[in-house]
Amino acid sequence: MPRFDLTPTELTAYRPDVREPDDFDDFWSRTIAESRDAGGEVRRVRVDTPFTVFDVYDLTFPGFGGEPVSAWLTLPRGATGPLPAVVEFNGYGGGRGLPGERSDWAAAGYVHLFMDTRGQGSMWGSGGDTPDPHGSGPSATGFLTRGIDDPESYYYRRVFTDGVRAVDAVRSLPEVDPTRVAIAGGSQGGGITLAVAGLAEGLVAAMPDVPFLCHFERAVGLTDRDPYHEVVRYLSVHRGADERVFDTLSYFDGANFAKRATAPVLFSVALMDPVCPPSTVYAAFNHYAGDDKRIEVYTHNQHEGGQAHQWFAQAAFLAERATAG
């Protein structure tokens, strides 16, 4: 696919005004507080695997409203703690998969928690295990318009809260140094990473890779690819609902979370990405409040971005910030 967005020079300066609700901070502080107050236990059970260099646990933690969320917890075998940790969030439609399927961070010496995304896990990969026990009004196929009539009922309110509570859960583990917790994820996982970076305090690093869920109003009008195109299909049926829909989405825009995030951050962007257009990624990056920020640019890639190249960049970035002490 040829480049279709702003030029590289324009992208580096692209810092648009993004719709932001007046009660954004109140909405999220109340949401997170209510879920923390709901309580719940972190539970884990060791899983038998063929791996000899790390141990895998089936971990359950309380997410939105105290509801149970599944995750895989992978620990380097024989390592002495407390260790730095990486909490990782998944791409759109995927689940946590099989135990040990994501082992790079544990192999590099980190405690790794890979969060299941509630209600997802049946579009690709090896499946998911966490239900989303909430109904919604009419929506288009997919997840992006579920509950979009109101921010209180919107699907990503629950997912982003699950992400914050995943950080809480990993910080509670005896093997983890709670001051050295990083977050990471690609595409949808990158969008969740940005949200958690804006909502959770004291993170040692955030690593959003080709992030989704940023600058909705530009994305929806710029690309004809899903998932953003789910909003187009919804609005093509619910004519005249634009203001209501984009008001809801403004509570979940990665650019608004970026304005509140201060952890050291490493973004990535692909300049031929038709799924998460580069200007939407730069909208979040250029609004990011922290001073320690970098972006890896993959000039001729689409949504696959840097793949293993990006993981090695993340590993080097995180080693400088999380492995000392």
Automatic annotation (TrEMBL):
Residues 1-319 form the Acetyl xylan esterase domain. It holds the Pfam family AXE1. SUPFAM superfamilies: alpha/beta-Hydrolases. InterPro entries: AB_hydrolase_fold, AXE1_dom, CE7. PANTHER family: CEPHALOSPORIN-C DEACETYLASE. This is Acetylxylan esterase.
